[in-house]
Amino acid sequence: MASVEMKNIVKKYGDGFPAVNDVSLDIADGEFMILVGPSGCGKSTLLRMVVGLEDITSGDMIIGGTRVNDKAPRERNLSMVFQNYALYPHLSVFENIAFPLRLAKTPEAEVQEKVRAAADVLELHEHLDRKPANLSGGQRQRVAMGRAIVRDADAFLFDEPLSNLDAKLRGQMRTEIARLQRRLGITTIYVTHDQTEAMTLGDRVCVLRRGVIQQVASPRELYEQPVNLFVAGFIGSPPMNFLPAKLRNGTLATPFGDITLDPKRGADIGDRDLVLVGIRPEAFDDASLVDEAKKPYGSTFRARVDVTEWLGDSQFAYIPYEAPEEVVEQLKELSRELDSEALRTQAVVSIDSTSRIRAGREAEFWLDARKVHVFDPATGENLTRDSDAGAELTRLAEEQRAEEIDEARASGLTVEG
Amino acid sequence: MSAKERNWWIVAGVVIVLYALFPIAWIVSLSFKAPADIANGQFLPTVFTWANYSQILTGDAAALFLPALRNSFGICLIATFLACILSMFAAYAIARLDFKGKKLILSTALAVAIFPVISIVTPLFNLWRLIGLYDTWPGLIIPYLSLTLPLSIWTMSAFFREIPWEMEQAAQVDGATSWQAFRKVIVPLAAPGVFTTAILAFFLAWNDFVYGISLTSTSAARPVPAALGLFSGASQFEDPTGATAAAAVVVTIPVIILVLIFQRRIVSGLTNGAVKG
């Protein structure tokens, strides 16, 4: 087990394009770090530089206190699960898992014992004699993980390991990976573009955009105190709504009426002619269902609902709004970058599933002004970010993680290396 | 497919098989004919006789045929083996590494393959006599490599390209050196390709006549196709047709056996299950 430190890592390809640009990231021993971002943000490249499959143009990669820039992959003692699993088709499941041990010339008895132990953890016992071709997708995935955990690697690296599984299996494997990592307490770097995986698995999440780190924080901090427009738009599903607004004396004039910021947050911004207001869908609700005690913390407005989606446990309403040309252009640009396509300017609003609001009618909504963020449309910077509150959230997450690992180790579940 | 369409396919298939196999059937039939029967124009011999076979295996042609058979086997197997080993490394480099002159190697290989054999055989004859390779096994193995290598490099690099890069990277992360990754992962995966290439290379060498007849003079190195041309009849007015046919049948048998054995190994889809399914 070891920590992983990256110092000013740069990766430039032949054409001089920096796929990864000046990335510095400290991953503590035993930490589960997620690298997330839209496609082409450099997350996989970064992972491959950690493992040594990609050369580092400049910067230092330090694993367990040793600089590994010039070390071959096999000298770095890391194990990796590939997106397409990369199982050896000519070897049985047993030999696939045993492969790293065989290369290390481990005595036969120890190989048997370790492979059985790994197979126990992953419930692969009855498949040990089969060939990968005869396994289902989920089983192959488990074999790939078996090959990773069988030796005492300093860190696990996952490169979008679940993206080839169907949705149901993906959910199961996700919890399986989380359990495994807690149990083994091994430093893990996990690349994904799926934000559900990012939010549920990670102790901390590193959001990348065009090879540059945007924010490294616990999932909660990312969600509640995003540092800029990109992070705010990327994290959360359905995504945060961005409304154009005019800011005067701490009051935002939006297409959905005026929102009064709490003076502490509004004061620093000053008056501006154009800002983007970021409001998460769940900050809205059907005004008729909101507690009277809560109402003063927000504002109500009336709007015509375009479409509603009832999902049983929740309900979404889509409210179209008008926006100035320049904002529309920018929002389109942002959504393109986030791998989605915004066709129209509309707000997605989460309302109670019992709400009787119907599509095509006008209805009254309430929105929680405490959960509103204000972004500078030019730089994308979050003007209302409370970094202390964010840091506190991350600190709590770290405490919780330390506790969980201690618990796992104390209960003797950890596989001793 | 409708019944009518299927019938047409069957008919067409039968026609093609007949067309392809008829000459071979004729050769087989010839090999069982007595000398008097050979020119009678009938497909089946009037009396079956093993005389032609005994003539080439134990009779007066045996001194010519048996050493030739041994030479052919030895030379072709060695040439095939060398071609496979060399082209495996070359193809791996071509498929995996980025180096200058990659295109040059491939196009040179192609140029060598299409270069007419007959145009280099005379200079080669002189050169071999000078340096003492004339009428030796190496004297044939080297030119055979020039036949088999280009083809082997091309087919094998196609096979290597099919193998997912991740296989090798996974092996490297698992602690393998490049050589170990090549030997333990790439070679087993490429085995069907290697076998296919080996068979093709073997046939090329096995069927060669021009080098065989030009670069040898005695049974020290003369291969079968050349020996076949040197068979003589019982008298100088008689063609050795029966013996030649029998010898042709005998040399065809190893080829057929080879294909039957390796047919099982040439299964595509060995990489199934390597990557996502």
From TrEMBL, chain A:
Residues 398-417 are annotated as: Disordered. InterPro entries: AAA+_ATPase, ABC_transporter-like_ATP-bd, ABC_transporter-like_CS, ABC_transpr_MalK-like, ABC_transpr_MalK/UgpC-like, Mo/tungstate-bd_C_term_dom, OB_MalK-like, P-loop_NTPase. It comes from Pseudonocardia oroxyli. Residues 398-409 have a biased composition (Basic and acidic residues). Keywords: ATP-binding, Cell membrane, Membrane, Nucleotide-binding, Translocase, Transport. Coiled coil: none annotated. GO terms for molecular function: ABC-type transporter activity; ATP binding; ATP hydrolysis activity. SMART domains: AAA (SM00382). GO terms for cellular component: ATP-binding cassette (ABC) transporter complex, substrate-binding subunit-containing. The keyword Signal does not apply. This is Carbohydrate ABC transporter ATP-binding protein, CUT1 family. GO terms for biological process: carbohydrate transport.
UniProtKB/TrEMBL annotation, chain B:
It is a multi-pass membrane protein. Its main location: membrane. One of its GO terms (cellular component) is plasma membrane. Belongs to the binding-protein-dependent transport system permease family. InterPro entries: BP-dep_ABC_trans_perm (IPR050901), MetI-like (IPR000515), MetI-like_sf (IPR035906). PANTHER family: INNER MEMBRANE ABC TRANSPORTER PERMEASE PROTEIN YCJP, MALTOSE TRANSPORT SYSTEM PERMEASE-RELATED. It is found in: Cell membrane. Residues 69-262 form the ABC transmembrane type-1 domain. It comes from Pseudonocardia oroxyli. It holds the Pfam family BPD_transp_1. This is Carbohydrate ABC transporter membrane protein 2, CUT1 family. The chain crosses the membrane at residues 7-28, 72-92, 104-128, 185-206, 242-262. One of its GO terms (biological process) is transmembrane transport. It comes from the Bacteria. SUPFAM superfamilies: MetI-like.
